[in-house]
Amino acid sequence: MARRAGANPENGPLMHGVALVTGGSRGIGRAIALRLARLGSAVAICARDTEALESTAAELRKLTPRVFSRPADVSCSKDVSDVVAETETVLGSITVLVNNAGIGLFGPAHEQSEADWEHVLNTNLKSIFLMSRAVVPSMIRLGAGDIINIGSLAGHNTFSGGGLYCASKWGVHGLSACMAEDLRNHGIRVSVICPGSVVTEFSGRGSKDPSKALSPDDVAHAVAALVTQSPKSFISEVQLRPLRKP
Predict the structure, then answer these.
(1) Residue 246 vs residue 186, higher pLDDT
(2) pTM for the full model?
(3) What gap in Å lies between CA 6 and CA 194, rounded to an integer?
């Protein structure tokens, strides 16, 4: 079970863990990073926005001194390798990886450019491949680990103007399921969280009514549930919806 927000991180269930959260500077990623710190984990975050990254790192340091942050483009293999290597040097072997970085670009697929396609697919899908590939070897040596990929209900459903975004999120779902089969015998749990509409700065399809949408903390709570799951089982997928339909 997730601990109360006011609990002592030094005695938390993840007190010996090291978590890396991509897109960790704001929104869902920020909420996840803070929740993992409250559970006792050391936390590394990476993102493109240096100013927002430093702001979130400062908040994390109020919870734990074991914090590392680094600007990075997680669709770039060198940046990914550097983030993982530096995290492990500063904090130790990564035990929890949350692939959260993502973007949205909407409109009819036939009106999008090749550059648009590459930007969305590289950020939302290729980054998960690159980051997981970099982290898995040390998890295999440890014989344990959690990889949590933040997908979307758009990975199950289609809608007008969602061609690029849905393609990326359907890919996240397929990649996650295959990774789970590849890695479960190594003691590594791979899960995908598929949220519905979340109130963040994310460039979605329009404004959201906060009373009828998820909050970043709702997604962070789901992450906490996954990483504190009984060690002999794992939840392969979480579909997370607002209680009230928008």
Answers:
(1) 186
(2) 0.92
(3) 27
Least confident window among 27-31, 209-213, 235-239, 242-246: 209-213
Q: What CATH number was assigned to the domain covering residues 13-240?
A: 3.40.50.720
pLDDT of the residue at 205 = 54
Residue type for position 139: M
Confirm whether 30 is a catalytic residue. no
72-97: average pLDDT: 98
Torsion of CA 21, 41, 223, 154, to 10 degrees: 0
In the chain, the amino acid numbered 165 is Y
Residue listed under structure tokens 């803070």: 34
**What residue spans define the domains of the chain?**
13-240
Q: Please pick, among 47, 67, 130, 165, the residue that the annotation labels catalytic.
A: 165
